[in-house]
Write a structure and sequence with these properties.
The complex is a heterodimer of chains A (361) and B (519). Chain A has 16 helices and two strands. Chain A is mainly alpha-helical. The longest helix of chain B is centred in the middle third of the chain and has 16 residues. The chains are: A mainly alpha (361), B alpha/beta (519).
Chain lengths: 361, 519
Amino acid sequence: MSPRDTAAVRHEEVRVSSRSSWFGQIDFGAVTPLIFFVLLIVVFGFAAPEFFLTAENLTSILNNGAVTALLACGLTVVLAVGEFDLSIASAASFGGALAAVLIAQQNVPLAATIAVVVVAGAITGLVNGYLVTEFEIPALIATIGVSSLLDGFTLWVTKNTVIFTGFTDAFMTFGNWQLVSLQAPVFYLAVAAIFLAVMLRYTATGRHMYATGGNRAASRLAGIRVQRQVMLAFVISGVLGSVAGVVYTARQGSLTPLFGTAFLLPVFAACFLGSVTLTRRKFHILGTVLGVYLIETGTNGLLILGAPAYTQQLFAGAVLILATIGARYRTVGFRLPGRSAAKQALRESDAESVRKTATPT
Amino acid sequence: MVTSPDPFPDGVPVLTFRELTKTFGQTVAVDHVSFDVRWGEIHALVGENGAGKSTLIRMLAGDYLPDSGDILLAGQEVRFAHPSEALEHGIGFVHQVPMFVPNLSITENLLLGVPFTKRRAGLIDWQAEHRAARADLAAVGLSLDPRADLETLSAHERQLIAVARALKRGLKVLVLDEVTASLSEPEVRILHSHIRSLRAHGVSIIYVSHRLEEIFRIADRVTVLRDGKAVATLDVLGLTQKELARHIVGYDVGDLFERRTTNVDSTKVPRLVVEGLSDERLRNVSFSVSRGEVLGVCGLGGSGRTRLLHMIFGLIPHTSGTIIIDGQRYEFRAPAEALAAGVSMVTEDRIEDGFVQTLPVWQNVTLPWALLFRRWGFLQLREEKRAAARNTSRLGVRMPSLDADMNELSGGNQQKAIFARWITGPLRILLLDEPTHGVDIRSKRQIYDIIRELTAEGVSVLLVSSELEEIEALCQRALLLHRGEMIDELHGAEIAKDRILHRLLAGEDETRTDKHVPA
C-alpha cells in the first residue's frame, strides 16, 4: 500500500456526528434569512418601539400569519415530492364556502361539516394526484385546472354572495377561542406543523417523499412507490388547504367567495423562502413557517411605520427574490454569474470537490 | 495496435501546451502542464478522475481562462475567451454525451450554430441543406435520411453525427472526450475506423478515454496527467498496459484485468434459475447461477442484456417463463418485491437513476431500507446513520462526511456508495449493469474487489458489461445474447474477449448483412 492510500484511509474514517441533521449541513448562508428576520425585528423595534415591540403586536403577528402558514405547510409537502399545487388557495376558498353554506344555510353540525370538508379536500388531492401520476399531466397544468373547477364550485355553492349571518356559536368558537391571547388558528397550525415536520423527518413516508422529489427513477429502483408518495402529498395539501379555509372563515365570521386567491402568492413565497432557510434548497416545515412569519413581520412593521398597504406585496416579492439570489451566491462564493451552466455547477462545489467534479464521469 | 506512422513531417506541432496552470481556490487543477500534439496524430490524454483532463480541455475550448501558461496553435499563441473562438481556429470538440436537440432533424442538428444557406427573401433552402447534410453524413460513413429526427438514432450514430458536425468546420484538431463511454464494442470499432481516416486526412486528434485498452488500439502517443501535472508523454508503440496504469495511478497496480475467480460449488441448489424467460424482445432465455458465482451477460446494443436484468428485477413484466430463487418461485411485480427477496440492481447511469442528488450520502445508502430502521413507526436515524457509516467504510468510500451531497464524491466513490447501499439490506443476487461506467482505474479495481468479496460471501452476481475484459476478469461463466436470444454459454477459460466478440459479431453478420457496417 502506498502512502497515498494511507492518506485515503484517513479520509475514510467516518464520523457519525450527534449534530442535528434536521437541516442536513448548515452553512452560514442558510442562516441569512434568520439574520434578516432578527434584523427586521430590531429595526422595527427601534423605529417604533411603543407599537411594534409590544406583546400585543407580536401575538397579533402570530395570529395573523397562522392561516397562511397552515396553507404553506400543506404546499411544502407537495413541493417536497417535486410537484406543484396551484389549487391550494382554491381548495381553501372551497373549504370555507362549503363550511359556511353547510353551517349557516343547511344547519349541519360543526363536526359533520368538518368531516365533509376533509373529505372534499381529500378528493381534491386525489384528483390532482391522479391527473399527475396516472395521466402524467404536468402538475402546473393539472392543478390550475382543478383550481378553476374549485373556484367554479365555490361560486356555485355560495351563489356568489357574501355569507355573514347564520353561523352557529360552535362554529364561531372553533375559529376564535383563545389561550393567553393566542388565537385558535395558531394552535391548529402548531398541531399540523409538528405532525408534518415529524412525518417528513422521522417516518419512512417522509423519507420516501423527499427521495421521490429528488430523483423519481432512482427512488423507484430503490423500491419506493413513488406514485403513492405523490398522491399522498396532494391529499395532504388538499385536506390542509380546505381545513385552513374553514379556520379562516370561522375566524373572520364571514365568507367572501374566492377569498383564498389572495393567499396563493404569499404561500408560495413563504415555501421558497423556507427552502433556503437553514437548508440548501430543501422544502421543510420549519423553514416554511419561518418564511411565513418573516413576511408577516415585515408587512406588519411596515404598516406600523405608516407605509401604504401595497408595500406588503413589494416586501414579500423583494424578500423572496433576494433570499433566492442570496442562496445562489452563498454556494457560488460571491462571484458574478457565470456564462455556462457547467461552469456554474463547478463553482457550486467547494474547492476540495472541484477536482473531483472537474472530470465528467 | 498502432497503425500507419505520422504522415506529416515533424516541425512545428499543431498544438503546444506550455506551462499551463489553472487553480480553483486552494486547488491546483492543472499544474504547469506542457506537451505538444503533432500534425495528424492521435494523441491520447489519460488520467484518473480529477487528474485535470477536463480542466485542460476546457481551457483549450475557451471555457476557462488559464491562470498562467500558453496554448500555441501551429506556433501562434492563442487565447480563447469563448468556445466559438476555439471553433473559429479549427479546434472541434465531441463530448461523451453530444449536445443535440433531440426533436430536431439531423440536418438541423448538424447546422446548430452555423449560418443557413438562404434563398431569396431570407428563407432557408431546406433542400440544399438536406443535400449538404447527406454529404456530411457520408463523410463519416452514415447513410441516413437527414430529415429524420435525431432522437431516432442510436448512441454511436449520434457520436458520428457529432464528429460530422465538428468536421463541418474544417478542423485542424478534434478533441474526443470519452466518446466511446456509452458505445458497444462493434460501435467502438466503427468509430475508430473513422477516427483513423480523419488522421489520414491530416486532422490531429486528442483522444480522452478511461479505457486503457482503447489507447493501445488507436493512439500514437499518450500524455498522462496525475494530480494536475503532466507526468509523462509516451509513444504507445512498445508501451504495456501495466506501465501505462502505473503512470496513471502513480504506483504499481498490477494487472487490472487479472482473471481471478473462485471455484463454485454447483452441486447445491442453484441460487437463481431462470427458465424460458420471454417477452416481445427476449426469446426463451434460460440459465442458472450458483451461490457465489459471477455470470457474465454479453451482447451488443439491442441484444436485450439490460432488459434481462430489468425483467428479473421486476421492472418490466415477462410474458412467459419462471424465475426461481433458492428453490422458490418468484413473480416480482415491482422492484420493492425484488429487493425484499434479496435481489438488487446497480444501474448503468447512476446520475440518472442511481442516487438521489438532494439526499445526503447516508440517506442514499439506506434509501431502500428506511423501513428496516423503523421502531414504533419512527425512523431510528442514529442507527440508520451508523449502518451507513459501517457499510461505506467497509467498501472504502471516500467522502467529506456522511452528510455530504452525492455530487461532492467522485464517480468511483458514488458507485461504491451505491454498492454500500445494496449490502445494507438482505442481498442474495446482485444485478450489475455496467458497474464501472465512468469510473477511474483505482475505483475500478476496488469495485472488482468488492464484487469478489461479495461472491465469497455467497452473493450471486449477474454482470452486464461492454468492457469484455471485465467479463474475462470476473466471470466463471458468460452468456452471449443476440437479439434477445441466447446464442452461447462460455465456461472458464473459454471466456476470452476475442472469442466473445467473434461469436457476437458472427451472429450480427448473419442477420445484418443488409446494413452498412464498415470494417
